[in-house]
Amino acid sequence: MSTSSIDNFLGSGDALARLQAHAGRLLRLQQQLETLLPGYMAEACRVANLKGEELVIHVESAGLAVKLRQAVPSLLADFGRAGVILRDIKVKVAVREYRPAAAPPPHRHVSDSTRSGLEHLATSLPADSPLAKALKRFVRQAG
C-alpha cells in the first residue's frame, strides 16, 4: 500500500473534492474578513459557512454581534470590491463551551518512616529499574 498526501486522498472522490473546495473558500473568506474588520472584532469572528450567496459568521459575544450586524452593509460592499458577491451576511452568537479550570492535584504528605522505607526499597532495586526511578521521584515529590 503506497502512501499519499491527504490532498491527493481528498481530491480523489467527487464529494471529498467538493468538501475540500468549500473548506478552501471558507478559509479565504476568513482571511478576507480578518482584513476588513478591526483587530478586536477579527479575533472574535469566525466564518462558519457559505450557503449560496449567504455568509454565516459566528461571533463570541452578543455585543460584538450587534456591532457586526451594523457593519453588514459595508462588509457586503467590501467583499464585493474583493470579488466575492454576497447577498447577505448572517451573524450568530456562538459562545464557547465553558469548562471550569481543573482542580489542582491534592498535595499528599508521606510520613518520615514511609519515606525512609521507600528510599530503602529504591536503593535495593537495580539502578536502571523503572520502579526504582519512580520510587525516587515519588519520595522527592511527596513532602
Structural key phrases:
143 residues; alpha+beta; GMP Synthetase, Chain A, domain 3; 7 helices; 55% helix
Mind explaining what this structure looks like?
With 143 residues, the protein is α+β, with helices and mostly antiparallel strands. The protein folds into 2 domains: 10-93, GMP Synthetase, Chain A, domain 3 (2-Layer Sandwich); 112-141, no CATH class. It is built from 7 helices and 3 strands. It has helices at residues 6-12, 14-36, 39-42, 62-70, 72-81, 112-124, 130-141; strands at residues 45-51, 54-59, 88-93. A 3-stranded mixed β-sheet has the order 1-2-3. Helix 1 crosses helix 2. It is elongated. The mean pLDDT is 86.
Topology:
Layout: H1 6-12, H2 14-36, H3 39-42, E1 45-51, E2 54-59, H4 62-70, H5 72-81, E3 88-93, H6 112-124, H7 130-141
Parallel strand pairs: 2-3
Antiparallel strand pairs: 1-2
Helix pairs in contact: 1-2, 6-7
Outline of this structure?
The protein is an alpha+beta fold and 143 residues long. The chain has helices at residues 6-12, 14-36, 39-42, 62-70, 72-81, 112-124, 130-141; strands at 45-51, 54-59, 88-93.
Number of domains: 2
Strand content: 5-15%
CATH topology of the largest domain: GMP Synthetase, Chain A, domain 3
DSSP strand count: 3
Work out the helicity level: 40-55%
Distance between the termini: 54 Å
CATH architecture of the largest domain: 2-Layer Sandwich
Main-sheet strand order equals 1-2-3
* CATH level 1 class label of the largest domain: Alpha Beta
Give average pLDDT, whole number.
86
Structural class: alpha+beta
Q: What's the story with the biggest beta sheet?
A: 3 strands, mixed
Uncertain spans, ≥5 residues at pLDDT below 50? none
Output the number of helix runs: 7
Q: What's the name of the CATH homologous superfamily of the largest domain? A: DnaA, N-terminal domain
- Give the CA-based shape: elongated
